[in-house]
Every structure is written in structure tokens, then in C-alpha cells.
């Protein structure tokens, strides 16, 4: 480590710590990497950008030994020596640690146990709890995380869990951290702490490969940026502008990212499409506590209107959508009324909500959305298979035709309808879920983080689609942590704070006004 | 990646994986057959023995094809062997002791099976008791009930009952059905936007060869006909009905299925109901084939059924599996049993070898998946 830091901050001529040369890797039918070269200098944060499907994930899997030597062509050099990793473990032993998108912690085990999992200090073959705790405290101090090492990991916030993972990697003497979309699930404050930590580690000679779609945050952080497109390196640059990077990523200018549907009728329609009154959620008594993630929420939504919902993590945004879609766990209060129907209690199951014309695209598509092994066709039509059934048998021609229409209108890129959905890129998976919701021809569409973890090109297509749908009379409620996106798409904004509406803003709201309402202390 | 267009399947990873798996299984089966044929100096491949083999695998096959759907939905049913034994005895009892006409007595088995399956399904779905526990309890309960009903005495059903397990389709009827099936398979392969004539001809020839072999002995055995009809029906249910597709979704990602509005509880009850009905049919075939309902009928058959499904490519994690794969799996296991009996191998070798084959099959499968 001292050897590295003696070389100081990266300069134009620093010899690379790690070098990937002409890496090529194919999957049947797809050339994922087509001669990519990439290098990482000691003590550098190197951002890796590119649309989904550009080859980023494949590249880091090569780098981290997930694809063992021999399954790709090209070479990996670490400090000048060629590496032939046989697996993740081998790369780890050389100091390369992957911080994956899905955290690899055991929820029920304590922080300390997680930190030293697999390398527990032993005394006479029995775990030495004192030494374990001491090592854990040392590891936590290194990343500046103040948590009880004996607390189960599941009690930590996502941001803290990520810090634990980084601490674990450092505990294994990692000198190269590979972070895959580390902030996808983080609130801004946690993300800020993560960046501080990475900068701190950089001073200590630890290099990072940082993959993110959030250009606003990755560009100020990174020393250099490499952009991949279609399995090739498009550019490696020091301090490029956001526009440059986007242009490299998509190979074209993305001008109007946020098309906004025309605001529905100058005067509000007399009868709102959706009318929500006193909506609240109370969680069943947890360990001795009563929590109300949502409280007294009132709002109206007109047909053709896009209503944005802003707020910090835990402000009740997802709870709000869950209550509307009938998937909230806990006691739901209040009433909802659709298109002038008499107010009724909120739906108790997704099937009820869908029957009434409310559809949801959830924030966590892997967990709540996709059946990964099933085909694109099955995933698209999952919500309405019964509609295609005639005396219990599916009419395949009709199903096929509907799927093809969705593929066409969503510009869904899939080799064919029988492909399993797990193999599509994130953007295309999201389109499958949107397609599923739209096939039900809903009146109200609830979108929870609809563009999380998907590439810029697909984002633009989804924005366009939302605008078109709203123009067609659909009412849209959209939750997003991406403020420019939320402000760009919405006609009106609700800001949630501590489970209550803390502000109702019009389309002229600024990020500052939203943040002020989202972070204000609530009584 | 083509933009907004839908191309040809077949070249995909998924497609090739299924092919790879299917061919591996067929290859393994052929190797086993070759070894057994050589070891028995050809006796194994005589029509008489192949006909016996087909009848031997019938009961396991019926249970295994149903088990595929249960496992695909992320469930398990350990009670099917005991249930089959019990229901086979119940049907025989009603025919013999109460003098019910055979069709009614026989029909009773799947009906009772459906009811008992639905009961177990309800315990799993509504009370959230793990299926392993519910059906383990069910297994013991059914075993005990069978013992109580028979008091250890075998019940011999009437002659027309036995026909179900021992009769053969007249040879011309076999040829007609086989011919129709061959034509159907050929037509299926040639139809649609992507005809696969080679596969169609292959399947048609296989069908005719199958009928020819069985007709060279006594004809197509009734249990074999029942197995094929049920398997075709179940494969259709799995692929072409909302019920079937929902099972794959529930086993593949339960949360996503819930969010998609699928009535998970109902589907789980339904799949256990179906399994129960199949256990009833299997029980009748078992009693009829063996010629008597015995107090330990069906013992351990649940494990054979699960093994056949798994050897046939069904994932115990749920969401993946094919009905016809289970038939191949059952054929592999029955071939081992049959071959070793021919060779007069001591009985203890059979479970040992079957266990090894089961683990090896899954090991090969997992290795293949990792390679992908």
C-alpha cells in the first residue's frame, strides 16, 4: 500500500495498476465485448459509463474473475504481470473486490460476523469473539461508519450496509474496488458519504472502478471516465462534460430528454379521475413500536395528468403507491374514488386494483416484477392470461399479436418473444413491465422509480412513452428520486416528508424548493 | 440486438440450453440401454421386455408428470405414493366389498384424491404450513389409513378392474392411434412460421417404432396408453392454459406473481387438487397391474416420482420443468430397475444405483447451467 501511495496522485504518465487489453467475449448471438481496452492507475477513481447492454457488466465480470480465464480473449495485467483468474476468489486474493449492485450480506448475522465472514479469527478452532469484535471495530473505523458491530446487518440502512461491504473488502486488503451502481438504492445523503469515503480511500492508494448511470454524481467524482458502447471503448477522458459523455454513450445528442404531455384542459375537469382522501398506513406492531409510514394523504389526479411524488427515502413514497395498488402490508386507512364512483376503501389486493383500472410498475423489478426464467411473452401477459383464455385454453395467436404490438410500441429490444426475460438489459426489462401494466389498459398508472438503473437512451424512450400515455388521457402518478426527471415530467408535484404531504408544487417548482420541502423538519 | 423487432428463436441460449439438456438425457438413456442390452445379451431389448418396462414405469410416470407441476409451482408433495396406495385400495374395496360397478369404483379414486389433495393444498395455501410438512403428515396419515382399511390383507379386485392394468389395446387399434399420433406430430412440426420437418419426421418414426415394438409383443398396454394421454393433457395444461403459466410464474417469482394479480392461494390449492386426482388414477393402475391392493402399496413412490421429475430437468427451486422430461426421467429409473432384475443383481443394488444416478443427473445439469 505504501508503495502505491508513494506514487502520489495519478498523473498523465503513471504506469497502470491494472490493464485490460483487447478483451472480447461473446455469448451465443451477442458479441458483448469487442476488443475493449481499459486501464486503472494507482489511486484513481475511474468511472465506467455506457448504456445498458454496452458491455459494462460483462467487462467487470471479466475483471473480477466471474468469467474465469479462458472464457474470453484478451489479457488482464496487474502491476505488469498477466493474471489468469480462475474465479472471484482468485481476483480477490489479488486485491480486486467487487461491490455488487445486490449487496452480498447475510441479514441475520451481525455486522462483525459479516465483516469477517469466512475468515473468522479462531482460537482452538472456536471463534474468538473478542478478536472478531476488535477486527470489526477496526474495519468500521476505516470507513468511518459508526454502528454497533453486534447489531444484525438487517437493522442497518442500505447506505450503511454498503459501507459494511466496502469495509469488508478493505479488510481483505483490497486495493481495487469495483462498484457496480453503488448509489442506485441510496438517498442523496448516503451517496455523499460514499463519495467522501471513496475520495478518502483514494488518498490511501485504493483505486476504484465506478459504474453508474447518474452522470451528475459520477463526473465530479471521477478522475477519468471511460465510455463503452456496443462492446467497444468509445473514449477515455479526463473531466469530460455531461453532454460529451451522453453523446458518447448514445452516439447522438439527447436533446429533449423530458417531453411533457400537454396539461389536461385549461380548467380542471370537474370530476377527478382519482380522488384520494385521508390515505394512511399503519404497520402492525413491530418489535414494540407502532409506525405510520403514511398519514392523512389527500390528492386528486385528473385524466391526462402526470403527478410527481417527491421525497427522501422512507418519506412514504413507495408506501403511497403500495396503498393505492393493494400491496401494502399493514392497516390501510382512508378512501379512494375512481372517475366519480363513490369513495371506497383502498384495494386489498393487486387483482382488485387492476380490475378497477389501476396498474403499478414497482421500483424493484427483480423482486416484484419479473419472472426471470419465464419468456418475454409470459412476462408481458402475466397479469391478464385469463383474458386470453377460451374455455381454459390460451388463444396463442391473440397473445402473440398483443405481445408483438407491445414490442413495437415500446421499442422493446428482445431477440424473440420466447427469450427468457432475465437475459434482457435493465431498460428492456423495465419496458416489459410497462408493457404488462399497459396491456391491462389501466386508467391510472402508478410508476415507482420507472428509470432506476437503466440507460439514458431507454430513459428517453420511457419519458416519451409517459408523455404519450398521459396525452391519451391516462392519469400517471410517478415516484422518482431523480429530481430533474421528476420536475421534467410532472404537471404537479406532491412532496412527502415523514409520511405526510409537506408541499404541493406546480410545474414551475425548482429542485431547491422540492428539496426544501422534502428535508424540512416535520413536527 | 434488433430494435423493436422479433426474430427467430432457436439460436438463443435458452433454446440451446433446452436442447442441450434434452439431448444429454436422451444420450444418457441410450448409454444405459446399450450397457443393459450388452449385459443381458439382447434380452433387455426384446419386445417382451420393453413392453414390461413400459408397464413398470406407468405408475411412477403418472405421479411424476403431476409432480412436475407441483414442483414448478415451488411446492412439493410427499404424500402421493401413500395416497396412490390408499386410493387404489379404496377403489378395490368399493368394487369388491360394496359391489360397486367397476367404472364407478374406479372413478371414486381420482375424486377422493382430488378432495384430499385440495385439503392438503388448503393447509399449505391458507394456513401457510410448509408443503413439506403438510404432505409428510399426509403421507403418514394415508399409510396408516391404508393399513387400517386392509388390516394387512390383500384385496383382489374383479376381472374388469384388472383389465385397466393388464389389458392390451388390440393391435389394429394400436396402429390406428399410433398412425394418427404420428400424423399429428408431423403436422405440428410442419405448421407455423418455423417448420421443423426433420424433427417432425423423427418424432413420427419414433411413434411408429414404439407401436411396432409393443405390437410385436401383445399390443400397447392399457397403462401405457393412460400415461401417454395424461402426459399429453398435462403438457397442454402446463403450456397453454392460464393455470399452467401461472404455476411457472408463482414458482419463478412469487412476489412478482402476486403483484401481477395472480390468485396464488387458489392456484396452489388447484395444483394439489390435480396432483391428488392423478394419485387416484395412479393408485387404480397400480392395484390393477399388480392384481391386488396391498397394505404397503405405493410406499416410497413419491420419492421415485420426485426423482423422475428432477432427472427430467425440473428445478426444485421452482419455475422450471417439463412434463415430458419427467417421462424420460421415469424411463431412466425404470430401465435401471428392469435391467438389474434381468441380470439377477441383488436387490440392494437398485436403490444405490438409482440414488447415484439422481445425484449425477442433477450434477451434470448444474454444471451445464454454470457454463451458461
What can you tell me about this protein's structure?
The complex is a heterodimer of chains A (523) and B (372). Helix content of chain A is 33%, strand content 25%. Chain A has a six-stranded mixed sheet with strand order 6-9-10-3-11-12, with helices on both faces. A six-stranded mixed sheet of chain A has the order 17-20-21-15-22-23, sandwiched between helices. A four-stranded antiparallel sheet of chain A has the order 2-1-4-5, with helices on one face. In chain A, helix 5 crosses helix 6 (158-171) and helix 14 (396-410) crosses helix 15. The model of chain A is unreliable at 1-12 (pLDDT under 50). With 372 residues, chain B is mainly alpha-helical. Chain B has 16 helices and no strands. Chain B has helices at 13-39, 47-56, 58-72, 80-96, 102-125, 131-150, 159-166, 171-190, 197-216, 222-240, 242-252, 254-259, 264-290, 301-311, 323-342, 349-371. Residues 1-17 of chain B have low confidence and may be disordered.
Unreliable spans of chain B: 1-17
Shape of chain B: globular
H/I helix tally of chain B: 16
Strand share of the residues of chain A?
25-35%
Biggest beta sheet summary of chain B: none
State the secondary-structure class of chain B: mainly alpha
Number of helices of chain A: 18
Mean pLDDT of chain A: 84
The portion of residues assigned to helices of chain A is 25-40%
Strand content of chain B: under 5%
Q: What is the CATH C level class of chain B, in words? A: Mainly Alpha
Percent helix of chain B: over 70%
Distance between the termini of chain A: 49 Å
Number of E-type strands of chain A: 23
Detail the poorly predicted runs of chain A: 1-12
Q: How would you classify the helix and strand content of chain A by structural class?
A: alpha/beta
Amino acid at each position: 500500500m505504501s508503495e502505491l501511495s508513494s506514487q502520489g496522485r495519478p498523473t498523465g504518465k503513471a504506469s497502470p495498476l491494472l490493464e485490460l487489453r483487447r478483451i472480447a467475449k461473446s455469448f451465443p448471438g451477442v458479441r458483448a465485448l469487442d476488443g475493449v481496452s481499459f486501464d486503472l492507475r494507482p489511486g484513481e477513481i475511474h468511472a465506467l459509463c455506457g448504456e445498458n447492454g454496452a458491455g459494462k457488466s460483462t467487462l467487470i465480470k471479466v475483471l473480477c474473475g466471474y468469467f474465469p480465464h479462458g472464457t474470453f480473449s484478451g489479457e488482464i495485467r496487474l502491476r505488469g504481470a498477466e493474471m489468469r483468474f480462475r474465479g472471484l476468489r482468485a481476483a480477490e486474493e489479488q486485491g480486486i473486490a467487487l461491490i455488487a449492485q445486490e449487496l452480498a450480506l447475510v441479514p441475520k448475522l451481525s455486522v462483525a460476523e459479516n465483516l469477517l465472514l469466512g475468515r473468522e479469527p479462531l482460537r482452538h478452532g472456536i471463534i474468538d469473539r473478542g478478536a472478531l469484535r476488535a477486527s470489526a471495530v477496526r474495519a468500521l473505523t476505516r470507513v468511518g461508519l459508526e454502528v454497533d458491530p453486534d447489531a444484525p446487518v438487517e437493522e442497518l440502512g442500505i447506505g450503511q450496509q454498503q459501507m459494511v461491504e466496502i469495509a469488508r473488502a478493505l479488510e481483505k486488503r483490497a486495493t481495487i474496488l469495483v462498484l457496480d451502481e453503488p448509489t442506485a438504492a441510496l438517498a442523496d445523503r448516503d451517496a455523499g458519504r460514499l463519495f467522501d469515503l471513496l475520495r478518502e480511500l483514494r488518498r490511501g492508494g485504493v483505486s476504484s472502478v465506478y459504474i453508474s448511470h447518474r452522470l451528475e454524481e459520477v463526473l465530479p467524482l471521477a478522475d477519468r471516465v471511460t465510455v463503452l458502447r456496443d462492446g467497444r471503448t468509445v473514449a477515455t477522458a479526463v473531466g469530460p462534460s455531461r453532454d460529451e459523455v451522453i453523446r458518447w454513450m448514445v452516439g447522438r445528442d439527447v436533446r429533449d430528454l423530458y417531453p411533457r404531455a400537454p396539461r389536461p384542459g385549461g380548467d380542471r375537469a370537474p370530476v377527478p379521475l382519482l380522488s384520494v382522501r385521508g390515505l394512511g398506513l399503519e404497520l402492525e406492531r413491530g418489535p414494540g413500536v407502532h409506525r405510520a409510514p403514511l398519514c392523512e394523504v389527500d390528492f386528486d389526479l385528473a385524466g391526462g395528468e402526470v403527478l410527481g411524488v417527491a421525497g427522501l427515502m422512507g418519506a412514504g413514497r413507495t408506501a403511497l403507491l403500495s396503498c393505492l395498488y393493494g400491496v401494502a402490508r399493514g392497516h390501510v386507512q382512508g378512501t379512494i374514488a375512481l372517475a366519480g364512483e363513490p369513495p371506497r376503501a383502498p384495494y386489498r389486493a393487486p387483482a382488485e386494483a387492476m380490475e378497477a383500472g389501476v396498474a403499478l410498475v414497482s421500483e424493484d423489478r427483480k423482486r416484484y416484477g419479473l419472472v426471470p426464467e419465464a419468456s418475454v411473452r409470459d412476462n408481458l401477459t402475466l397479469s391478464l392470461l385469463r383474458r386470453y383464455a377460451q374455455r381454459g385454453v390460451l388463444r396463442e395467436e391473440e397473445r402473440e399479436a398483443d405481445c408483438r404490438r407491445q414490442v413495437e410500441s415500446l421499442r422493446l429490444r428482445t431477440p424473440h418473444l420466447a427469450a427468457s426475460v432475465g437475459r434482457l438489459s435493465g431498460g428492456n426489462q423495465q419496458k416489459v413491465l410497462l408493457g404488462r401494466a399497459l396491456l391491462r389498459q389501466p386508467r391510472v398508472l402508478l410508476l415507482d422509480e420507472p428509470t432506476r438503473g437503466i440507460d439514458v437512451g431507454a430513459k428517453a424512450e420511457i419519458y416519451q412513452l409517459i408523455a404519450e400515455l398521459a396525452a391519451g388521457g391516462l392519469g400517471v402518478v410517478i415516484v422518482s428520486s431523480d429530481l430533474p426527471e421528476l420536475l421534467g415530467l410532472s404537471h404537479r408535484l406532491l412532496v412527502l416528508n415523514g409520511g405526510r404531504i409537506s408541499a404541493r408544487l406546480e410545474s414551475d417548482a425548482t429542485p431547491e424548493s422540492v428539496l426544501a420541502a422534502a428535508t424540512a423538519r416535520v413536527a | 440486438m434488433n430494435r423493436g423487432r422479433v426474430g427467430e428463436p432457436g439460436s438463443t441460449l435458452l433454446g440451446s440450453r433446452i436442447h442441450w439438456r434434452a439431448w444429454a438425457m436422451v444420450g444418457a438413456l441410450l448409454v444405459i440401454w446399450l450397457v443393459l442390452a450388452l449385459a443381458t445379451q439382447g434380452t433387455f431389448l426384446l419386445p417382451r421386455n420393453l413392453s414390461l418396462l413400459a408397464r413398470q414405469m406407468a405408475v411412477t410416470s403418472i405421479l411424476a408428470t403431476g409432480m412436475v407441476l407441483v414442483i414448478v409451482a415451488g411446492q412439493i408433495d410427499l404424500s402421493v405414493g401413500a395416497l396412490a396406495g390408499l386410493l387404489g385400495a379404496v377403489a378395490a374395496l368399493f368394487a369388491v366389498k360394496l359391489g360397486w360397478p367397476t367404472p364407478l369404483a374406479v372413478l371414486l379414486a381420482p375424486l377422493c384424491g382430488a378432495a384430499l389433495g385440495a385439503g392438503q393444498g388448503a393447509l399449505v395455501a391458507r394456513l401457510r404450513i410448509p408443503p413439506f410438512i403438510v404432505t409428510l403428515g399426509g403421507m403418514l396419515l394415508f399409510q396408516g389409513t391404508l393399513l387400517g382399511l386392509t388390516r394387512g390383507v390383500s384385496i383382489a379386485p374383479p376381472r374388469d378392474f384388472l383389465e385397466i392394468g393388464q389389458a392390451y389395446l388390440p393391435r389394429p387399434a394400436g396402429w390406428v392411434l399410433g398412425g394418427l399420433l404420428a400424423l399429428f406430430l408431423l403436422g405440428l412440426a410442419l405448421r407455423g412460421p418455423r417448420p421443423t420437418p426433420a424433427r417432425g419426421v423423427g418424432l413420427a418414426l419414433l411413434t411408429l417404432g414404439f407401436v411396432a415394438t409393443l405390437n410385436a409383443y401383445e399390443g400397447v398396454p392399457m397403462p401405457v396408453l393412460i400415461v401417454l394421454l395424461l402426459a399429453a393433457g398435462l403438457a397442454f395444461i402446463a403450456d397453454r392454459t392460464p393455470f399452467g403459466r401461472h404455476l411457472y410464474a408463482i414458482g419463478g417469482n412469487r412476489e412478482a406473481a402476486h403483484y401481477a394479480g395472480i390468485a396464488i392461494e387458489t392456484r396452489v390449492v388447484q395444483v394439489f387438487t390435480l396432483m391428488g386426482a392423478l394419485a387416484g388414477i395412479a393408485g387404480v393402475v397400480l392395484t390393477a397391474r399388480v392384481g391386488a391392493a396391498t397394505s404397503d402399496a405405493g410406499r416410497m413412490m413419491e420419492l421415485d416420482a420426485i426423482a423422475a421429475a428432477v432427472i427430467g430437468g425440473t428445478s426444485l427451486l421452482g419455475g422450471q420443468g417439463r412434463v415430458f422430461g419427467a417421462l424420460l426421467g421415469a424411463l431412466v429409473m425404470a430401465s435401471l430397475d428392469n435391467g438389474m432384475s434381468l441380470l439377477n443383481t441383488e436387490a440392494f443394488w437398485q436403490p444405490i444405483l438409482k440414488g447415484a444416478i439422481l445425484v449425477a443427473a442433477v450434477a451434470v445439469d448444474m454444471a451445464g447451467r454454470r457454463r451458461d
